């Protein structure tokens, strides 16, 4: 059979892993794809670097754009990364040249996914991005095809392994964020510049993609409310444990009567829930379909092997002639997103205050909560240190976020409140 | 767009659920499938029964075979059940008439899957069976497409919700099998004739299908070692808990140097493992790919909604023109199964004996184990009742199953051993 000829742009961890997978499992892949899938060309910055893969007989292009024009390339695999610049230029050039594209680039898809899908659809080309979300978990396929018959009400996931590793380690070792981050960087679990991960941007890119598939809407990254994990303290993790929760950075997209709420933020997850038990670098996604019921999937969210597994799954689909629309439906059938502001969210909240231990503090705080119509489910205060700073934890009943925000602004102005209050949303039991 | 016209044979819980899903989510399904999917004909035994679905304008056939010949049916959905008889006749007739088939029938696929796939392949027709395994979890798609690039080393699953419900309830309520089964039957979680479920046959059908996909082999139901849960006692469940395990009915297909081991049996699962936490009627599957790493998926394994979700996912794939080979590769590329006998299995074992509490019992038992080269990791005996019957629990180090079987045969003949010894395989930590 005629091989499907692959050109890979970007030979970092994932690019080298994809080349290795195509070589190691070549026979098995040919059987499943119906024909061989062969690496014929690559492009990367430094030709001399040893990547542990044999590049004999494979065309080297210094310029990634040349892959789109190489007559010996049937499918372009974009593993450069970044939402704009060379990655975007390459994907556009490949589609313009009539070549299917497979990419692991969540930023590109989350920001330019509508335009790129429209171009691919107009050209009658597949555009695969299984590797863009949750690595080794085939969650794109699960949501777009496996649950295609369902009206999805909610998708919630642990979508960033770096954050989950840091939060897990903070809990297990009782240590604070800055030192655990430094350790994670030393171990290679966090980037030298960790901002995209720990500020929630990477998770928000992935959530944008999942929300588009789940709700049949155009990608709308700008509508995602994003908070990272910088402000999570060992103290809050310890209080969470006492209250029966684990703190996780969740990405949540949820249908509400007024539109789709999309948000990435730390959340208190009841320990009895599947997402609470996802530890370390693992990713997981929980999808709620109206007929399927809940479907939960957990696996490795990053790394050479899992990401390569997803890239090559897309290549096999293309070799088999799969014709699934990029976003699960024709572009014309997708709706603009109807985002709901985070201020309209309803839920329970964890509020931790550092206060001076003196009479009347709780009366002042609870009076403000009462004035905003917020009632409390529980309160925690350990020990007594008259005149010293002590933490007080308040757990609210369900309330609207606008109310708790307004209440906190006032609470923060009280003389007895010594630090910016910590607010963490609580997932339903 | 021209609708895809569907004929459903069998209007039990799943058939009625599928009709309801096609009606309830018609607009969404049309968007995702690229054209409407319309129910045009049905067949069932009793036309007068109220199934809560509108059948106005839908052709009724008293004979299921007539669906295969109905010119107003594009795809035949077989929901009759049973490995032979009318279900098999209908699927064969539909393929012979050039009509794609979607079925939820695990028995049919596990036993006749090779011949049916060959017929479908020869006719160039899809044969969908997502609904045959694990209901609402799209595990067929996950394994066949999502993990297609991987060499799979092991698939392990909780594949029968009835058994898992019974085991969960026995543990939570400390009750024994017969009364929990009776309750499950009263609640509709177990069939009036529960044999297929509780004896492990249903799980073995599903495991046969997963093994064929995972290892690129022909279905080989007869090679699956099958044990059910009838002999699991509340006492063993309680000892399991003490030792840090939960007892689950697992289906396991595993690559070994000498072939693929396929087995369904109760197993002690370490409480730290994901499969140990799957409770009640839920199903779950853990797949190990060489590049993806472990992928775990949990969801509702049965019932009208989840099964209908899977049936309609297959219909959407067919409407989209998907051309995945039935078993993930061309029939000619599938290997015969190379089954490994259970006697060649290596692992740790839980052994519970009811013995007369008298001096020398343990010496006799451990001498036999020593003679068979079996060493012990731990031993449990609670309290003392000289002259009375007491349970002794022995946990072995890894050993070959042939050795433990031989040892037990000898142990069972000791005068001080009062009942057939209970043996439960232990999953690795």
From TrEMBL, chains A, B:
It holds the Pfam family ACT. It comes from the Bacteria. It is an enzyme of class 1 (oxidoreductase). Residues 350-425 form the ACT domain. Keywords: Amino-acid biosynthesis, Methionine biosynthesis, NADP, Oxidoreductase, Threonine biosynthesis. The keyword Oxidoreductase applies. SUPFAM superfamilies: ACT-like (SSF55021), Glyceraldehyde-3-phosphate dehydrogenase-like, C-terminal domain (SSF55347), NAD(P)-binding Rossmann-fold domains (SSF51735). Pathway: Amino-acid biosynthesis; L-threonine biosynthesis; L-threonine from L-aspartate: step 3/5; Amino-acid biosynthesis; L-methionine biosynthesis via de novo pathway; L-homoserine from L-aspartate: step 3/3. The keyword Electron transport does not apply. Its EC number is 1.1.1.3. Belongs to the homoserine dehydrogenase family. This is Homoserine dehydrogenase. The lineage of its organism: Bacteria, Pseudomonadati, Pseudomonadota, Alphaproteobacteria, Acetobacterales.
